[in-house]
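Open question from group meeting: does this chain pack into something compact, or does most of it stay loose? Before anyone orders reagents, we agreed to write out a predicted structure and look at it together. Recording both the input and the output here so the notebook holds the full record.
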Amino acid sequence: MSSEFMVFIGLIIGILAYVLLYLGKGIQKYAIEGLKIDKSIKSKHTGTWVFGTVLTTTYFFVQWAALFFAPINIIAPLGGIGLLVLILFSYYVLHEEIHKIQIIGIIFIIIGTTIVNIFNPNTGEIYAEDFNLSLMLTFSLPIIIIEVIAVIISKLKDYVAAGLIIGTTAGTFNALQTVSKRITAIPDPVLTIVFILITFLTAVLTLIFTQYAFTKAKANIAIPCYTSASISLAVIISLIALNEKIDIIQVIGIIVIIFGVIFVSAFRKEIKREG
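Structure tokens returned:
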């Protein structure tokens, strides 16, 4: 199987993964708002939340498969495409308005994703000598510590800037989850076992902080922070710790995607519920 074909397979699987993730997130947010009104775990919205969680859990495994075929700087930016699905869901199912600036954001995401994929310099292969654990820890641990402290301060301050802080923290854990999955593709049994465990841990933390953000902040603040952190940190860590290469024009593409994410998400109206 040629490296180009491997990357293509990873691309297709990756798109499916992020469609599942963001559709699941939309359903989860819908259910959480309903539960706030019903104030009962026996509410019909509980089943809806479970269904959304099943979709996001399915993403966990589908994205994992994608990362066996393609590098992170191809897969992670596909989160922007998943966000488009969320916007379509909110428009057609939740009957939310789409603003002109959101359409601009959609165009940005499409252009940025195209740039990232066309100018990809990597193959789908990865080896043990590509991985640098010390660099990964040196870069990642201070970020996690700072974000956890920020979450605690936000809580003490009546959740000031909760969407920014908690959403970004959730995105950081998702980025680490993405990198950990990629490391399990290295043909080394010890690394595989260790990072399978780390993958599951970061997946649980991603779920916890995402739901925490949904209960304490508006989705149109938490979601762009989550997506931007997830895309940018996954790519940066892959460059630092996995020796994956990135072309300067890909950097521009990722920046375009992040701006698109902000434009698309920042003007979403909150999901409304009837009493």
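Observations to bring back to the group:
The two ends are 56 Å apart (CA to CA).
Residues 3-38 form the longest helix (36 residues).
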